Amino acid sequence: MRLFDRAVVRVLPAVPRAVVRRVAAPYIAGPTLDDARRVVADLNAEGMLATVDVLGEEVSRPEEAEAIAGAYHDALRAIQEDGLAANVSVKLTALGLKVDEALCRSLTGRVLSDAEARGIFVRIDMEDSSTTGETLELYRSLRGEGHEGVGVVLQAALRRTLEDIEALAPLRPSVRLCKGIYLEPSSIAFQEFEVIRKSFVACLDALLEAGCRVAVATHDEWLLERALERVDGLDDTAYELQMLLGVRVERARELAAAGHPLRIYVPYGRRWYEYSLRRLQENPKVAGYVARDLLGRIVPGR
Ligand SMILES: Cc1cc2nc3c(=O)[nH]c(=O)nc-3n(C[C@H](O)[C@H](O)[C@H](O)COP(=O)(O)OP(=O)(O)OC[C@H]3O[C@@H](n4cnc5c(N)ncnc54)[C@H](O)[C@@H]3O)c2cc1C
Asked: Among 182, 192, 204, 247, which is best to mutate for testing ligand 1, by the most ligand atoms less than 8 A from CB?
């Protein structure tokens, strides 16, 4: 990333919310469940699968967690009613992890039971490192209770991940492997781009060797190539590729057309701000987009 772009990433929180919203619009289906239904149906029509995510994280009151759980029940009903090829992703902090752990467990268990009754898979997203241990522990206890239709996410940037894979391997978990978006200290996370790439490949190899179902979530062409070499000849049920809505759209289409199971992460909802900031941070052209939009506001009709 150029120096100018890095500088913009640092000041992004100071960019007006309306600008963030407009520039980040391609990353989000829209504010309502109907928006998500429409976007998922379009993706399905193009041969792509989807993961529906209700936007929201770090709620501060139990009622907010309950409202988000309610939104998931609505999303599950919609997926079933419309016959969509989609599953859902949940964030534990949105279901109250930091407010009341027992409530979070109960809400997550209820979402999972509802999803299982409808034959829909649930992925637990991975958030920052203050939640890693609790997230994996909750995953283990859900599996211990007999839930099978649930998976986790592991972050290649974390130094602990290879050990986590070894510890989880007897459960043959379904794992989404990603680099990890949260800024973490070097004591627990790799910092250099190439080191994170190497860790990603090592984690992918370990997961495949352990017979886990792997969802390779990356837009990094170098990593995609490494992953494609490794999944060559594997059954469709053993792996999938995942990308985010609005990122490398043409490449996603190409991979799906080549016959790979390709799933797009589709967030929707009114709590769009934090997610949008993270996506903008990762957009290599962020400075240009934000500058153009700001300029458009200062010089209307430009
Ligand atoms: C389906 C999915 C689910 C995820 N779930 C989680 C999760 O639960 N927890 C977590 O910590 N992280 C999650 N992530 C984010 C992930 O950890 C990375 O932060 C993110 O994918 C960027 O890393 P990358 O591997 O795509 O490589 P990068 O090197 O960041 O990107 C490779 C290339 O992709 C393009 N690109 C990437 N991002 C953008 C963007 N926003 N706009 C435009 N172009 C872009 C650029 O061309 C860039 O050079 C998820 C990612 C995906 C795809």
From this structure: 247
Quote the pLDDT of residue 302.
46
**Collapsed DSSP state (helix, strand, coil) of residue 89:** strand
Give start and end residues of each alpha helix (H) in 2-100: 3-11, 17-23, 33-45, 62-82
Q: So where are the chain's domains?
A: 25-271
279 pLDDT higher than 50: yes
**Residue having the nearest C-alpha atom to atom 36 of ligand 1:** 283
Q: How far is the CA of 219 from the centre of ligand 1 (A)?
A: 6
DSSP code, position 270 = S
Catalytic residue selected from 37, 105, 114, 125: 125
Q: Report the distance separating Cα 302 and Cα 300, nearest Å.
A: 5
pLDDT in tens, 87-107: 999 999 999 999 999 999 999
List, chain by chain if needed, residues with CB within 6 Å of any ligand 1 atom: 125-126, 153, 155, 178-182, 217-220, 242-244, 247-248, 265, 279, 282-284
**Length reported for the chain:** 302
Nearest to 126 by CA among 172, 179, 188: 179
The architecture that CATH gives domain 25-271 is Alpha-Beta Barrel (3.20)
**How many CB atoms neighbour CB 116 within 10 A?**
17
Which pair of tokens denotes residue 249? 């759209």
Adjacent-strand bridge partners of 239: 214
Within 10 Å of residue 98's Cβ, how many Cβ atoms? Answer: 18
* Torsion angle, alpha carbons of 162, 164, 169, 173, to 10: -110
pLDDT above 90 coverage of the chain, percent: 80
Do 77 and 300 form a contact (C-beta atoms < 8 A)? Answer: no
